[in-house]
Amino acid sequence: MITGHFGLAAGVKKIAPRLPLWSLLLATFWLDVVFTILSMFGLESFAPMNPAHPAYGQVVINAYYTHSLVGAILVSVVTGWLASLHWKKEGGTVIGAVVFSHWILDLLVHRPDLPILPGNLGGLPLLGFGLWEYPMVSGIIELALALGGAYLYYRSTMGLKSSQRRRALTASMLTGALLLLLFVTNVLGL
Amino acid sequence: MYSMFIMVLLVIIAGWLDSRLDWGQIEKPEKEKSS
Questions:
Q1: B1 pLDDT exceeds 80?
Q2: What pTM was estimated for this model as a whole?
Q3: How far apart are CA A36 and CA A50, in angstroms?
Q4: What ipTM does the predicted assembly reach?
Q5: What's the alpha-carbon Rg for chain A, to the nearest Å?
Q6: Of A52, A99, A102, A166, which has the fewest CB atoms closer than 10 Å, so is most exposed?
Q7: Is B26 in Cβ contact with A18 (below 8 Å)?
Q8: Where are the domains of chain A?
């Protein structure tokens, strides 16, 4: 769901235009950034099901801390609070919500591998609707998020002064093109 | 790997292009509400 996360972040610019795009893009991927740090210490892991032929959505993910429901809420709240120190309460709330949106989108596509409590405490049922089992469906959702996000980003620039229109169009087109490129490489397992 | 590279590019390039725009001067969208 890589492209979907970034598409959503670009679209959020429409409702929070004063937040820099980089902060929204980083926020949407923040759980995976923390995941990458924990995986360096061997606490979480990620591997393709078939290393010889990596394919879209065919991955084994062990992210029992960062991608647990409670863990994701904690990371979102802390990140949102930190963001609020710089972008005020409203900005912090948006950033926190974008961080947590990662878990919601992952819930749609992951096979049941998302615990409720960090470390899967209590052995509660794992969550995940498993749309990656239907790559066409999950791919269409990702593409819709990417295109929708690029469109909403473009719409967000409509309130800018007319002297900025050319720059705004360049930013919108390049953002859209990079989202599409990301979608293609992700779907092809590159 | 390529995906990772493009993600980094997206954050840096799109973020930079966005930062060149003067969002502080953005006009309140005359809400579609008014209709």
A1: no
A2: 0.90
A3: 20
A4: 0.81
A5: 17
A6: A52
A7: yes
A8: 2-187
